[in-house]
Sequence to fold (375 residues):
Amino acid sequence: MDFAALMAQQIAKAKGTTSTPSKSPTPDSKPAATTTPKFISRREAEEQRKAAYLAEQKALEEERAARAAAKRKREDEAASEAKVREEKRQRLAEESRIRREAREAEEEKARRKRLGLPELTPKNPDSDAEATKTHSSDDDDDVDSPDISPEDLTAKLRSLGEPTLLFGETHPARLRRYRKLSRGPTPPTGPISTTLPPVEEKDMKMPAVIPPPTDRKARRLLYRKLSSYFNMVLREWEIALAREDNTDTFAGQAAANAMISSKETMRPLFRKFEKGDLDEEILTAIVEIVLAAQERRYVDANDGYLRLSIGKAAWPIGVTMVGIHERSAREKLHDGAKGHIMGGEVTRKYLQSIKRCLTFAQIRWPPEDIRQLMG
Fold:
């Protein structure tokens, strides 16, 4: 202790104070140790970094979970709203159908009462059996009508001024010819004349299941529905072109030529409808196409047309047979549904005419869902 400090201590004692003067730093005194260390070890630094990383990841995970929960909530709300809208749409469609059927029934009842006809029995909406019974009188005449002896049939044909027997004609064929002649000439039922009696538009709905070939009445009714539907589409096409009256332009002439060509190329298809000898695979595809078009599902109808015309078989690309070894996936080239568009010129033309009818139908009867529009 130096002299100045000693003197200050003595003076303080004389004055009676207890405070001691603060020590002034001296060159030889050491600084007091701080609480925060200046350096940390590598282990402590790694632990701090790890704790910060875990805290950051935990915060991000909580944020992601919150966003996912909010997204699920929005999706559930949207799904419930869509379900409510679909149920409401179906309910309104069913109510509209019931009102329409009731109105049609009242109109039919009033018409029959005005004409003095008997009232109709209630119709069963579950199947097409009632439609088959309604048109059973002119479906297959050779099934329900009584037979005629060959002598009487010859006399009746002579009275009509017709040949009594054609070359290679059998007795059932003679009987059918006589019945057609006795009914008189069939008036034209549409743009394409056919011997198949037409059905009303409300009875044109295609069945979900095609009747077997053994059920001749149901098959004939199916052919009548197909011919009536295509005639209706072609008739509406003619009316639309006549209403536009733009045949002096190139587009109008092309549209008119397409309609006329479609009528001409679909005549062989109508002849097959009359004879009932249409290929089973083609008939199934056409019924599927028409059913989708009637329900305004034109994208599905176009898919059915592509399957019918092109098929689902794999098309070879490049060299398919080199050497003696079988290449991979080569067996798929002949393992699929064949396309019918190359089956013949007549088949190709009436299939293209069906596609043109679909294109016009989606304009004349547009779908409620815009996603069902064909490209």
Residues 18-22, 125-143 have pLDDT under 50 and may be disordered.
